[in-house]
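Exercise 3.2. Students should predict the tertiary structure of the chain below and write it as structure tokens, then compare their answer with the key that follows.

Predict this chain's 3D structure.
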Amino acid sequence: MNSPEETQLRDDLRHIVHAGALTLDLDAIERRGRREQRRAIALPSLAAAGVVGIAVAGSLVAFRHPAPAGPPPVAVAPTTTAPRQQASTTAPQLDNVAYVVQQVAVARDPANSVVEMKQSAIDASNPAETIWTDPATANEVTSRVWDGGKVMTWQHQYLDSRRVINVDWTQVNYGPRTWSYVTQNYGTPISGPAPTTPAAGVAYIPAASLKGMLAAGFVTIVGHPVVDGHHTVELSVALGKDGKAERNYFYVDSQTFQLVRLVRVFAPDSPHPASATSDYTWVQRTAALTKLINDPQVPPGFTLVSANS
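Answer key:
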């Protein structure tokens, strides 16, 4: 690091780490959930997969799940990708870190909506995928293309009678026309209300969680690019342990301060590639869409196979 800004960022980050301010480890969350999912439901075509993390920026493998019956989803915000560019003018307060972080802290998730997250491909073992999350149930459905065949995975979680978190996975592999099912629990009873975020990954980041992520690192404003039709504020947040920082770039809408894009630049010793990109869209809630997320759909004639086969 050579510039004064980078030197200051490094020193501040070390101070934060030693002060114990880092309470959130996205990699740990992701590793735990994806590890459980791979162990539980990896089919033969998936057995060689590495960590299915948040996908890297790169060529997006185009795939959309079949449109459910009923009215099509209606996007809450424009979804046509606009060229990344610097906004011509920005309000002075949008260059004020304290102001932007405060606005993010009071932002709320759009009502009556579900979340669509698109992850670009990491490599052949970690293809592009689209994940739909229902915030009302914390259930997810993931669509991806693997070796030319469509794979869909439903992840559902609930509290059992002992208040232990249970997670069910139903996976449908359209290539060999097979499906599998497995359920696991996280072992320790919890107190309080049921979790409102999925057990694995960061496909859905509630506004309250984003507030905590920004509070866990050293935040700077990088710019004001246009992302998927949104004028955004690009926030750089340094995270990490022992000085080995992971840097995250949060792109929040400059009016609603809701998350539009997350780019993660991993530490040199990370098992991930250099970076990963996830794009978020809030979509109007419909009966057909919530049924797709919350009700696993196994086509007639598909063969049930062992989840560990």
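Discussion points: The first strand starts at residue 113 and ends at 119. The chain is about 20% helix and 30% strand.
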